[in-house]
Amino acid sequence: MIRSFLRILFFGLVALTAMLGVSNATSVRTDLANLELTADKTSISPGSEFTVIIEMTPDEGWHGYWENPGDAGLKLEMDWKLPDGVEIGDFQFTTPHLIPFEEIVSYGYEGTVTIIADGKLSEDFNQDQLILSGNAFWLICSDALCVPQDAPISHTIDIGDDVTDNARVATVETVKADMPVHIDWPSSFHTDGENFTVKSILPDEIAVIESAYLFPFSDGMMENVYRQNLSFINGEIIGRFNNAFRYEDNDTFEFVLTFKTGEGVDHAYFLSASKSMAPIAPVFEMESSEAAPTLPSLDFGTALLFAFLGGVILNLMPCVFPILSLKAMSVVELSKKDPTEVRISGLLYTGGVVLSFGLLGVIVSLFSLGWGFHMQMPLVNFSLGLLMVLIGLNLLGVFEIGSSLMGVGQNLVASNNSRKSTFFTGVLAVVVATPCTAPFMAGALGYAFLSGGVTGIIIFLALGFGLAFPYLLLCFVPAFRRALPRPGAWMENLRKILGIPMFATALWLFWILGNQLGVNAMTIAIAAGLLLSLSIWALNKNETLWKAVSIISAIGVLFTGYYLSNLDTQKSVIEADESGLQAIAFSSNELNAMLDRGEPVFVYFTADWCVTCKLNERVALSQDNVHQAFAEKDITVMVGDWTNQNPDITRTLQRYGRIGVPLYLYFPVGRTMDNPDILPQILTPDIVIDAL
Asked: Tell me, what CATH number does 220's domain have?
């Protein structure tokens, strides 16, 4: 669907360019790439053959595509404007590379894409020059964006005796050497309507192969997957895949097979398989009808890196802002402290963060809980809200927090007690960070959950180290500390200003509580925050009356906590008219039923305590053009609210290798529960509309 849309867009651009005229440039520059059109001859005689060379060099971080681009992308094509008597054949591409991104598998090239085509000049060509011109159009992509490119280009060859360009001839030879070799090994394929199997018989001299991969040249027959099920037994290589969505029934299946021999030599062969009506190899079925969770397309090293990067980025998410407010005050103090104490402060804070994440990893592994599981407990949200009130009062100067309150004090490097407080500030950072999800985290956390055991815990430790890394770097690199402003009177004003986000965070936590237990519970929680403020303020008074008021208020806070702990969580009710999506509540049984009826369905999993979820809903899912796209395609929208514990949602998240929200799934017409399109964690309206 996306590819069809892009083709329509590109041909529209081609038509527009044709009306504007064609450039006469051998080399042109678009906004993101350089394009060059040349040939292997500088002069040519009528009746001779020549080779056209097109070189597209994208900017760093961008890539182009092969003839079959896979799940997304478009190859480079040319709308030729040629004089009579000139023929140019099909483009010839080199062996592609795998370009995986999230759930999308594409085939293409990093760096320069060099394409050749055979040309021929007729015997009766009577012009003085051969002008090769046309309009090139293609798609280049980065890891975050795809941009169509369109450029008119031309190249002129003199008419006369044949004169070759040795440098260009060498380029052609290099390209041909990198092309897959067409070979006639016995090959066949079979499909039973769901499974697609292909088999090739290799010659006896190839006894061992490694790192094999099958690139489908025939589009629309086999599903594109990152990790392929390929086996090599008794001289036969067998690939087992699913049928492609909207399978195209053909009598032949063409593909490129790449592998290394036992000697480490790379090979690439172009093969053609004929259709077999009988099965050519057994299909390996799963024992259960319900798909088991599979590891995300990550190895352990990549999962570690993603966890670390996700932890670093987590510092920028709004969930961690309250702790950053606390650290902002202490960081300024670092500029005047003893370097040894500064480094100890960094190590203690890092220890608190890493150990807390390690504990989270153990809990998740033992009890199969999800990311942010504690936010599903109303009493936890109530307690955290009161803690934010305490921190806000402290920053406003109502009272000074001692070491007995476990580490939200501000003198982080002044004494042994403040060392203890530094450690627990790291613990608090982890507690408030869990409602957020940063880029890179989903795959890493899914890998940790599905791997389990020590491997999963190590991933959590890497995530914690990433969260603590910026502060640790500040403590160990003096140059960074010297860049900090000098302490002064302005710090007292800043301290009071930073109290405001703490109260805002408390209100947010009480709002979550209200969605869990009802609006009355939110009102009671706010009242508890007021009673706590009164108790703290009155405690500083010397009069007996105020001491009594402080004690009574504190008892009131304890009573509200007891009262809220005895309330049952309320089942979320989806207000379709408010969202504009006409969403219905998620049920895996209902989803299966709709998919069996062939209906398109979009499912998103969210929670009121998930800041990333709410940001996506505000920025993307609440927009009118997104609502219109769902309505035009008659797509049913289901929302899984994970604010409170829901076993059905938890199992579904785990099925797709996730342990937390957000998760966005799109099931086009004809899909099953096993093969949805999975959208990125950070949404924009264009991402959603393009996915549809």
From this structure: 2.60.40
Tokens 């053959």 correspond to what residue?
49
Residues 103 and 59 in one domain: yes
Query: What is the 8-class DSSP label of residue 222?
Result: B
Rounded alpha-carbon distances, angstroms, from residue 571 to 333, 393, 645: 47, 34, 10
CA–CA separation, 523 and 513 (whole Å): 10
Q: How far, CA to CA in Å, does 453 sit from each of 225, 352, 458? A: 27, 21, 9
> CA end-to-end span of the chain, whole Å?
8
Q: Are residues 409 and 538 in the same domain?
A: yes
- Quote the CA–CA distance of 101 and 563 in Å, as a whole number: 49
Show which of 131, 150, 178 is a domain's final residue.
178
Same domain assignment for residues 174 and 192: no
157 is in which domain, residue-wise?
Answer: 2-178
Q: How does strand 49-58 pair with strand 104-110?
A: unpaired
pLDDT, residue 178, reads 94
pLDDT digits (tens, 9 = 90+) for 437-492: 666 676 677 667 656 668 878 888 988 898 888 888 888 887 777 766 666 666 67
Q: Which amino acid appears at position 521 of this protein?
A: A
Please give the Cα distance from 259 to 214 (Å, whole number).
9
Instruction: For residue 272, give the nearest of 204, 180, 345 by alpha carbon.
Output: 180
Q: Is residue 295 part of a domain?
A: no
Are residues 524 and 585 part of one domain? no
Tens-digit pLDDT profile for residues 237-255: 999 998 887 788 889 999 9
What token pair was written down for 258? 């790449």
User: Residue 130: which of 159, 154, 152 has the closest Cα?
Assistant: 159
> What's the chain's average pLDDT?
79
Whether 238 and 197 have beta carbons less than 8 Å apart is answered as: yes
Same domain flag for 240 and 319: no
Choose one of 161, 178, 195: the last residue of a domain.
Answer: 178
| 320 vs 307: CA distance, rounded Å | 17
Strands, E assignment, 531-646? 584-585, 601-606, 636-641
Which stretch of DSSP H or E encloses residue 16? helix 2-20
Q: Structurally, how many domains does the chain consist of? A: 4
Q: Which neighbouring-strand residues pair with 105?
A: 100
For residues 213 and 248, membership in a common domain is answered with yes
Rounded Cα gap, residues 198 and 427, in angstroms: 54
